[in-house]
Amino acid sequence: MSEFEQPHAEDPSSRDQPHRDPTEWGRLIESLDVASCYVAINSWLGSKLRAQVAVEDIWQETLWLSWRDRTQHQWRGLSAFRVWLLSIARHRVLDAARNLGRQKRGGERVTAPFSVIAGPDSVSSLLPAGSTTPSREAGHRERAIAMEKALESLEPELRTIVQLRLFEEIPMREIAQQLSLPLSTAKERLLRGVQRYRHRLRALLGHDSEERGAP
Q: What are phi and psi of 21, to 5 degrees?
């Protein structure tokens, strides 16, 4: 069987692993708030790479790889599932950066992203039905733009913590260590940042919006 083909139906044990169930997959993906994943990916790409690689391409590849390798992940809840998906996306961004570096050096031939080679329709055909649609992708992108604007409205010291915690789900202790802050200071900044971020986002979207909360 080609690596691009979908495998046969899962065994009954997949009932305890909903991400392995093709009838549950689309619902799980949508419940992640995909727009927030777009924001994280976009921040990792940076301005130079962003001009060469689309967030949507990285996300499509992430979905395909996570569905292909779903047996490698043990279900521990939606948050852990999202962290796993983001780790795959982060590696795709790093691969794209390496490819761009080789291209600039005039080295070996650059490998095009799978989503570009296969095309969006082909990628979708490799995933369970309902995983992604053009209208959903457009909605995710529009929402992600609003989220990014809300983040940009924060002071840099608050923006970084909100980005790391809400969007990348990095543990607070790790964030505090990364920023060389006492844990209490990091938590206080997170609280202020989340409140201001959500207020700004509601204003941008024009209605109340339940966003991913900070634990």
A: -95, 115
